[in-house]
Amino acid sequence: MSSSFDQHRYQVRFDWGVAGLSRLAPADLVIVVDVLGAGTAASDALEAGSPLAHAALDQRFPDAAAVVRAAVDAGAGVLLGSLRTARAVAEAVAAVQRARGERTSVSLIAVGEATPAGGIRFAVEDELGAGAIIDALAAFGIDHTSPEAAAACAAFQGLRPAVRHLLTAAGSGQQLIADGARDDAIAAAMVDAASAAPRLIDGTFSAAAISGE
Question: Which Pfam families does the entry mention (predicted)?
């Protein structure tokens, strides 16, 4: 049964965390966006020739792992997204749509950070990461976006020149800097720096096929 908040009218949807995924109408693909966590780590692992196992997410990135599990349980194909892989992820989605030969619905889920009270802390880096992917999807003609997705896209488009500053100045970036990992925050802010899109295949995030399924 549809609701006013499930964005079912739109091909490209956007929400936050496990609760947001459950709020949205079922989608063919779910892109889990975790810019300073699983999304960038998975793309780095692919570039190093060591695909990231789904099971490895639980200890390192529990919030992202929870969203991935929920997406798998819902029967969706799952990709991990970040600023570094925005175009690569969009290209992988376009390849899936070509292979299926029909419109493919996409839910982008920003991970944020789970709070002790059971809510989600807004993470600017995940908003921008989702917006970058939504912007890249539009370049492939996948542009029937919900208002929520369109707002995330506009945030990225308007703030793109300041992305590096925003990632290092925001709370998550400041935490990385305090932990001595400033270079990680700077690397995560490099839009389209990675060419492989991490897609969950047989329990491992491997490079998504671009030419088809």
Answer: 2-ph_phosp
Quick one: CA dihedral 190, 192, 195, 197, positive or negative? Answer: positive
User: 0.90 exceeded by the pTM?
Assistant: yes
DSSP-assigned states of every residue in 136-198? HHHHTT---B-HHHHHHHHHHHHHGGGHHHHHHHSHHHHHHHHTT-HHHHHHHT-TT-----E
Nearest to 120 by CA among 3, 192, 194, 18: 18
Look at strands 52-53 and 204-207 and give their pairing. antiparallel
Query: Do the beta carbons of residue 40 and residue 57 sit within 8 Å?
Result: no
Reply yes or no on whether the pLDDT at 1 is more than 90: no
CA dist., res. 75 & res. 69, Å (int): 10
d(CA 69, CA 50): 21
Please answer whether residues 194 and 83 qualify as being in contact, where contact means their C-beta atoms are separated by less than 8 angstroms.
no
Show the DSSP H helices in the chain as ranges: 17-23, 38-47, 57-60, 62-73, 86-100, 124-139, 147-159, 163-169, 171-178, 182-188
Closest CA to 76 of 26, 32, 19: 26
Asked whether the beta carbons of 167 and 35 are under 8 A apart, the reply is yes
